[in-house]
Design a protein that fits this description.
- Catalyzes both the phosphorylation of dihydroxyacetone and of glyceraldehyde, and the splitting of ribonucleoside diphosphate-X compounds among which FAD is the best substrate. Represses IFIH1-mediated cellular antiviral response.
- Keywords: ATP-binding, Cobalt, FAD, Flavoprotein, Kinase, Lyase, Magnesium, Manganese, Metal-binding, Multifunctional enzyme, Nucleotide-binding, Phosphoprotein, Transferase.
- One of its GO terms (cellular component) is cytosol.
- GO terms for molecular function: ATP binding; FAD-AMP lyase (cyclizing) activity; glycerone kinase activity; metal ion binding; triokinase activity.
- The protein is of the alpha/beta class.
- The chain has 17 helices and twelve strands.
- The chain is elongated.
- Strands 1-2-4-3-5-6 form a six-stranded mixed sheet, with helices on both faces. Strands 9-8-7-12-10-11 form a six-stranded mixed sheet.
- It is 43% helix and 13% strand.
- Strand 1 and strand 2 form a beta hairpin.
- 46% of the residues are buried.
- Helix 15 packs parallel to helix 17.
Length: 577
């Protein structure tokens, strides 16, 4: 079965992709009749060396994303994973020559089709009297024994584009640029790894991997790698890759050792999430620095992909200060990242957390009785939430992620751990403020934020008084904050429904002669409101995106809130008995 692709046609996808890039980038122009993109300011390059590169499509943003001042003059694109036509390469050479450039350097990745087609175009152009040189880049560090075909051209080619572009922009001649980038290419290596294959439009995946396997040392055309290894953690994968790339027993290794200075590229092969890419980048930086390697620059992103392949490649380039200046030189190429021109290694990466404001002393702590009661209440709440974990998760699965019970259990365990550190403050205002900070830090999700908001706001009325009217006012303040920032209202099928019902009953605390019996009514109203959410259409939260026909269970947040109120009531009743 062929994979789904958002294309207009298989035959025209390469043309459409290049046309889309040019349409959105005023710095590029298409060469009429050819799948060629050139700098739109081509006529301003008189007297400079032109740089042309290219290859099959499917490697975006390579190569057209690297056309611009300070990088490539133009690119020639083939069909997906197919070398470009000789006629188009020759047309691009002629176009830059007729614009007044003083020679052309072809930067070619080491694949048979690319070498042949670019080489043939070069010979034809030279026969026409156009000065053309060609460098073939092979930066693959996968093969421990070099083959006759040599090392494949991979993501390191982009660094060659950058170095050559900076030299050309500085007015360096064709022969010198050719010699210098050829030397740079010898100090570079790339290794790829993928979690699964990719598929050319109109075709099936190029290879299959089992669920516990990854492919090491693969190229950028969907071909299999040199080793199939077991799935491991990101740290272990990166360590393995760097070991392979730098081992002296590997004939294609990069001679990186302690004290070396490198540019690191962490390249997304097309389908890896940015979250995973960040994890890989962190692992690579830590591993290299642990080996005593100095990272001069780190480039992280998608530079040379293999369609939608979920994988990465790591590139290491040995650098000195003159080479680093070329890497840092300005460019208008849209796909080149805006990298800070400072060393990565040695930079302070963590800022001290701000000092917490001084707390007012807990004036009621000396009594002890209130603090002990608070402990009993919190312990009962925690036990209740832990006991409801699976039930709440089951209710939450109707709305998608099924983690409401897990989130509340996380909060319960955080509170239990906090209680072990010492008695909580007896001051209700300080207690609620402390709980707010704890839940905001440990609970996570929207529930953590909502409980944090509720408790922070509820604490304010309790700073002056702690009588029953003050507790009613605290409930009002908490509900108001939840509605203001959570955008939920009573009847929206959220945790607010339970709390709102309880809050309405607690209004009676503001009347003379009020007593704890009102809390009993409040809890029963909360439980009834929680059950009533079964028949409500969700108006807020993630559940609001789910068809109401599928929500035939009460809202888990409302159930949890009612259970918390019930636990509080039971402890207070037992204390009065």
């Amino acid at each position: 079965m062929t994979s789904k692709k958002l294309v207009n046609s298989v035959a025209g996808c390469a043309d459409d992709a290049l046309a889309g890039l040019v349409a959105c980038n005023p710095n590029l122009q298409l060469l009429q009749g050819h799948r060629v993109a050139l700098r739109s300011d081509l006529d301003s390059l008189k007297g400079q060396v032109a740089l042309l590169s290219g290859g099959g499509s499917g490697h975006e943003p390579a190569h057209a994303g690297f056309v611009g001042k300070g990088m490539l003059t133009g690119v020639i694109a083939g069909a997906v994973f197919t070398s470009p036509a000789v006629g188009s390469i020759l047309a691009a050479i002629r176009a830059v020559a007729q614009a007044g450039t003083v020679g052309t350097l072809l930067i070619v990745k080491n694949y048979t089709g690319d070498r042949l087609n670019f080489g043939l175009a070069r010979e034809q152009a030279r026969a026409e009297g156009i000065p053309v040189e060609m460098v073939v880049i092979g930066d693959d560090s996968a093969f421990t024994v070099l083959k006759k075909a040599g090392r494949r051209g991979l993501c390191g080619t982009v660094l060659i584009h950058k170095v050559a572009g900076a030299l050309a922009e500085a007015g360096v001649g064709l022969e010198e640029i050719t010699d210098r980038v050829s030397e740079v290419a010898k100090a570079m290596g790339t290794l790829g790894l993928s979690l699964s294959s990719c598929s050319v439009p109109g075709s099936k995946p190029t290879f299959e991997l089992s669920a516990d396997e990854v492919e090491l040392g693969l190229g950028i055309h969907g071909e299999a790698g040199v080793h199939r290894i077991k799935m491991a953690t990101a740290n272990e994968i990166v360590e393995l890759m760097l070991d392979h790339m730098t081992s002296s027993s590997n004939m294609s290794h990069v001679p990186v050792q302690s004290g070396s200075s490198v540019v690191l590229m962490v390249n997304n092969l097309g389908g890896l999430s940015f979250l995973e890419l960040g994890i890989i980048a962190d692992a690579a930086v830590r591993s290299l620095e642990g080996r005593g390697v100095k990272i001069a620059r780190a480039l992280v992103g998608t530079f040379m992909s293999a369609l939608e392949m979920p994988g990465i490649s790591l590139t290491l380039l040995l650098v000195d200060e003159p080479l680093l200046k070329l890497i840092d030189a300005e460019t208008t190429a849209s796909a080149w990242p805006n990298v800070a021109k400072v060393l990565v290694t040695g930079r302070k990466r963590c800022r001290a957390a701000p000092a917490k404001p001084l707390e007012a002393p807990d004036s009621t702590a000396a009594g002890g009785a209130a603090s002990k009661q608070m402990v009993l209440v919190l312990e009962r709440v925690c036990a209740t939430l832990l006991g409801l974990e699976e039930h709440l998760n089951a209710l939450d699965r109707a709305a998608g992620d099924g983690d409401c019970g897990t989130t509340h259990s996380c909060a319960a365990r955080a509170i239990q751990g906090w209680l072990k550190e010492g008695p909580p403050p007896a001051s209700p205002a300080q207690l609620l403020s402390k709980l707010s900070l704890l839940l905001l830090e440990k609970m996570g999700g929207s529930s953590g934020a909502l409980y944090g908001l509720f408790l922070t706001a509820a604490a304010q009325p309790l700073k002056a008084k702690t009588d029953l009217p003050a507790w009613s006012a605290a409930m009002d303040a908490g509900l108001e904050a939840m509605q203001k920032y959570g955008k939920a209202a009573p009847g929206d099928r959220t945790m607010l429904d339970s709390l709102w019902a309880a809050g309405q009953e607690l209004q009676a605390w503001k009347s003379p002669g009020a007593n704890l019996q009102i809390l009993t009514k409040a809890v029963k109203s909360a439980e009834a409101a929680a059950e009533a959410t079964r028949n409500m259409e969700a108006g807020a939260g993630r559940a609001s995106y789910i068809s109401s026909a599928r929500l035939d269970q009460p809202d888990p947040g409302a159930v949890a809130a009612a259970a918390i109120l019930r636990a509080i009531l039971e402890v207070l009743q037992s204390q009065d008995a």
